[in-house]
Backbone:
């Protein structure tokens, strides 16, 4: 039985991970949970899974969590009360918990960086659903992985697809993700994108896009932030940078293709011109499960893929005018060093401002571009962790100031 620590247990990735554990109680057990502010859901998770430790990002909520647990009827309380902890140190404690075999990193955004590093430094294997860890801090994370021997398994559907396709190649014999070394036998990667909520909108129509429009994904069920990233296609740009760090290919050999059906989750082209693809219904449970069970596969009762039901699979090139965030991501990746950290932080803050209806949808890429341009003269090619954290904070504050001073705001439209 594999012991699992779930970082971000009340979010989309965390809840799906716990559903998998409930479906396979003979294979997995929970030993650690971390969460944000959703205490009612967290209490239910503690009742269901009896973790050894629970950490809250906001440690001021610990008394309330303890009160809610103590208010449960005796017969509904966990047999062994969990150790409760909080704040940055608490998250790191849960991430590096001694009894955990695998850490699922589902904390959204750069907030997941420090606990992920704590897990790596303690030698834990990781199911990485937090792409920002590599994007913002790839130059810091890669050496830590080499030092600790941790295995980083991608839980994103696209990178999981690439990982799964590579299992049948010579690379699989010595597989070690995130070394920054080019993957043997791999010529190119084709990351598929649904096109998001606005795939059938014109560039002109995007000027009127609302928050409600942007968070209505046609295929996937995800959190608000990642759904907006899908609408701007920044999620795909970030995945390009992540794929560069995971599989070692240069940016000229990592391509994006629009695939509206979201059935092919990504493809690889090998040096002999063979193209391999991984297919499945758009459901995050499969890539999460594969990380948890790897190198084995578990039999599931889930709905089987029926190609005749789908009828056809279609593909087209992405529109760079409609989706400028893609080009911003490629440019940041090629600049390297601290530029991807600025891109990621500026995007997180710009999306937050959009979700609060302080800027228009089309202001998101404009704001990110201004932040990246501002950072060019301060770029550090070989940054430390402190550099990354400092620059991340700067980029967020810069975007907030830009929103206050400029941009075409909702109340001026």
Residues:
């Amino acid at each position: 039985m594999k012991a699992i620590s779930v970082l971000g247990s009340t979010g989309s990735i965390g809840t799906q991970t716990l559903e998998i554990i409930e479906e396979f109680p003979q294979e997995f057990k929970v030993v650690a949970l971390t969460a944000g502010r959703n205490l009612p859901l967290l209490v239910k998770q503690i009742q269901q899974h009896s973790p050894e430790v629970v950490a809250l990002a906001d440690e001021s909520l610990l008394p309330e969590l303890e009160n809610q647990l103590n208010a449960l009827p005796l017969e509904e309380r966990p047999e062994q009360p969990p150790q409760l902890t909080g704040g940055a140190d608490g998250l790191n404690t849960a991430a590096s918990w001694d009894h955990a075999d695998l850490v699922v990193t589902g904390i959204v955004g750069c907030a997941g960086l420090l606990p992920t590093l704590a897990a790596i430094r303690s030698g834990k294997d990781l199911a990485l659903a937090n792409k920002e860890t590599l994007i913002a801090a790839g130059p810091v994370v890669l050496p830590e992985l080499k030092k600790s021997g941790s295995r980083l398994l991608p839980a994103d559907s696209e990178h999981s697809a690439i990982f799964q396709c590579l299992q049948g190649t010579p690379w699989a014999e010595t597989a070690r993700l995130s070394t920054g070394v080019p993957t043997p036998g791999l010529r190119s990667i084709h990351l598929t994108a649904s096109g998001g909520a606005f795939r059938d909108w014109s560039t002109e129509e995007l000027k009127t896009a609302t928050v409600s429009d942007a968070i209505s994904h046609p295929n996937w069920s995800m959190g608000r932030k990642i759904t907006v990233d899908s609408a701007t296609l920044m999620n795909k740009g970030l995945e390009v940078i992540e794929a560069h760090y995971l599989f070692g290919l240069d940016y000229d050999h990592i391509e994006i293709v629009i695939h509206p059906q979201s059935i092919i989750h990504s493809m690889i082209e090998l040096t002999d011109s063979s193209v391999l693809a991984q297919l499945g219904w758009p459901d995050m449970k499969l890539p999460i499960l594969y990380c948890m069970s790897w190198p084995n596969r578990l039999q599931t009762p889930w709905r089987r893929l029926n190609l005749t039901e789908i009828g056809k699979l279609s593909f087209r090139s992405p529109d760079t005018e409609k989706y400028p965030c893609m080009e911003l991501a490629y440019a940041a990746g090629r600049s390297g060093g601290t530029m991807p950290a600025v891109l990621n932080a500026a995007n997180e803050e710009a999306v937050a401002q959009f979700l609060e209806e302080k800027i228009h949808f089309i202001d998101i890429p404009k704001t990110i571009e201004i932040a990246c341009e501002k950072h060019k003269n301060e770029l550090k090619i070989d940054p430390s962790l402190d550099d990354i954290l400092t620059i991340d904070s700067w980029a967020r504050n810069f975007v907030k100031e830009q929103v206050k001073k400029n941009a075409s705001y909702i109340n001026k439209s």
Observations:
- Residues 61 and 67 are 10 Å apart (CA to CA).
- DSSP finds 16 helices and eleven strands in the chain.
- The mean pLDDT is 91.
- The first strand starts at residue 2 and ends at 7.
